[in-house]
Amino acid sequence: MAKPDDGSDHRIEEARKEWETHVLAPALKRAPEADHPFTTGSGAPLKPLYLPQPSSEATYLERVGFPGQYPFTRGVQATMYRGRLWTMRQYAGFGTAEETNRRYQYLLRQGSTGLSVAFDLPTQIGYDSDDPLVSGEVGRVGVAVSTLHDMETLFRDIPVGRVSTSMTINSTAAILLAMYLVIAEQQGLPIQALTGTIQNDMLKEYIARGTYRFPPHPSLRLTRDLFVYCTKFLPKWNSISVSGFHMREAGATAAQEIGFTLANAICYLDIAVKAGLEIDAFAPRLTFFFTAQSDLFEEVAKFRAARRLYARLLKDRFHAKDPRSMMLRFHTQTSGVALTAQQPENNVVRVALQALAAVLGGTQSLHTNCRDEALALPSEESVRLALRTQQVLAYESGAANSIDPLGGSYLIESLTDRLEAEAEQYIRDIEQCGGMVQAIEQGYVQRQIEQAAYEYGQSVETGSRVIVGVNKFREEHEPEPETFLVPEDTEQKQIEAIRMVKRSRSEQKVQESLGAVERAAQTDDNLMPAILEAVRAYATTGEICQRLEHVFGEYEPILD
Amino acid sequence: MGKSKPSDVAIEGIPPVSEQEETKRIPERVLIGKVGLDGHDRGAKYVAHILRDAGYEVIYTGIRRTPKQIVETAIQEDVAVIGLSLLSGAHKRLLKQVMDLLKDRGAIDIVVVAGGSIPSSDIPVLKAMGIAEVFTPGVSSQSILEALASLLKARRQAA
User: Is the separation of the CB atoms in B14 and B65 below 8 Å?
Assistant: First the structure.
């Protein structure tokens, strides 16, 4: 790639020298460049100008290629948004199942094309709403689901056969998926027809997100059980969403986001293979989840680099044959950390920019954040504005009309190459640690992220990175923003709902099914059938987790 | 528990704690912790880092500590300050529990500060509980260090 391989490249090189001497140098003399460093959002240095790479047709075909074809740099579908727009999927959930059900109905009426369930922290970690340990946390950051009864309320009048549902649930993924399957049965839908995604990505919980309950090995056994069950019975369901989002939001750079996420994917693929699943039966149902931050070009290049690197991994390392196994399909959420509490209306602009990056990067589905989310959960008006932002992009901006519209940009192709190479190096570093589980246990990944977050914070503090309204263009007196408040009686309502369920269920059935869960946990059998039975008997999320904890123990993180 | 030696790197403009006093003294101990179930620790780790850089001895508890664990650790480690980060919206309930436990244990001389996504309408409620300072998103390291220095000075004068 270094040497010009034909006359035209040579002429460009000559012309560049000419331009530097006769045009650029005098211009710099008259007015020098600003004296701050020019970097990407992740802090990587940028050249003032990117030029055509000395290239050949062979490099294009091998590294860029066509959409819907290996290595998928330009997108996973041949038609991309000309065939079907991305799924507009807003992450939502708060308070009781009743209130969240109303929010879902509202979102669907406003033109949302998929649902994304936010569960509260007790549910995510496996505690019931009436557990004294979680007092004050019920319904705060998502909806509380302690029993099948709550799940029934959550999906009341929502035909699960007609929406695809994504569930952000990890430690307790098997339990919440089991509840969703029972809802499908109740609605008369064969579970084989269900479409949706379960996050089921435990590794990033230990690294960045923190909703772990059990130690890594039993957690990954639950992950494996879900892989096997979904591959067998839910052919249209994504059994995992490998998530770079939370690591990046915790401070990782764009290259680390790709590298750590794909290193996690390698670990999951190894688990699936070890469980006896054919790579081409399992890999097509593995999906990804990334953030979109505000540096449009770095983010677009990130998505393209991730697709290419993943395709290569699947082909070369896992010997996949089916092109669908090599496709990195992903959901994007705009960045939470990029939102500012100061001048919150500026967030509308940031979200639009980030959403554009996701679309230009070829996302399969998208959540746009709301302007008030740095302060509290979003109000209904700001949820609508966030959705409208996607609709403007889809129907007015032109971004959906041609495939990979930034492909071929000198800058974008160069950033794509660089991010791919850097991400691959992180994957090698993690292999040096002995794989991802060991890298986490050694604190390697956490340290990398903490250091990057520190450097980012320092760049804001010194002013070398400008955040509008925060360290520049501030307002002296900001009006008090109105924030959405989760109803105060949520916890009480939930406690009553659990009491009601416990009075009406058969205690004998519950105890029998819980005993079966505990016995299955002691063996190496797939836990899903036993969990399904327990859920059907209206055993609670907390009761099932307690039985699992008897066998698995509780995770206690090691601090540096 | 994560302990570190105080470093002698100072944040620009803020002298290390040891130089702020006429007489050299042992660096003050600060507990930085996450209470409740929320795992967002970017802010807590960042604050721990800048406090270490400024010369404090920092004990970082990690995420998902109960109010009881926070108070026990604070007393065991003999800290002057507890700094708690909360982003889940559960701040009122959890901070009240921490303050009540400190009172029960007769450790009300420990200065408690909080940070995170806390609506400004809740700040007077938290202050009424005895939370000395509440840091909201976008606050600079410098403001945190200045606030801490003056709270500690007041604490020493009261002792």
Answer: no
State pLDDT tens for residues A142-154. Answer: 999 999 999 999 9
B155–chain A Cβ distance below 8 A for any pair: no
DSSP E strands: which ranges in chain B? 2-3, 29-34, 57-60, 81-86, 111-116, 133-135
Q: How far is CA A371 from the centre of its chain?
A: 20
Q: How many CB atoms lie within 10 A of CB A436?
A: 26
In eight-state DSSP terms, residue A133 is G
Distance in angstroms (rounded) separating the CA atoms of residues A13 and A4:
9
Residue A215: per-residue pLDDT:
96
Asked if the Cβ–Cβ distance from A486 to B36 is below 8 Å, we say: no
Residue B13 contacts A, CB cutoff 8 Å: no
Residue A375: per-residue pLDDT:
76
The CATH homologous superfamily to which domain B6-158 belongs is Cobalamin-binding domain (3.40.50.280)
- pLDDT exceeds 70 at position A350: yes
* pLDDT score of A6: 52
Chain B: closest CA distance from residue A84 (Å)? 35
Task: Give the domains, in start order, of chain A with CATH numbers.
Answer: 70-455 (3.20.20.240), 503-552 (no CATH)
Each residue's pLDDT tens digit, A285-296? 999 999 999 999
Chain A interface, Cβ < 8 Å to B: 121-122, 124-125, 133-137, 140-141, 205, 208-211, 249-251, 337, 340-342, 374-377, 450, 453-454, 457, 461, 470, 480, 483, 486, 557, 559-560
Over the Cα atoms of chain B, what is R_g? 15
**Total residue count of chain A as it appears in this document:** 560
Q: Is A286 helix (H, G, I), strand (E, B) or coil?
A: strand
B34: closest chain A residue by CA: A210
- What are the extents of the domains in chain B? 6-158
Classify strands B2-3 and B57-60 as parallel, antiparallel or unpaired: antiparallel
Q: What percent of chain A has pLDDT over 90?
A: 87
What percentage of chain A has pLDDT greater than the value 70?
A: 98
Look at residue B8 in the predicted model and tell me its pLDDT: 43
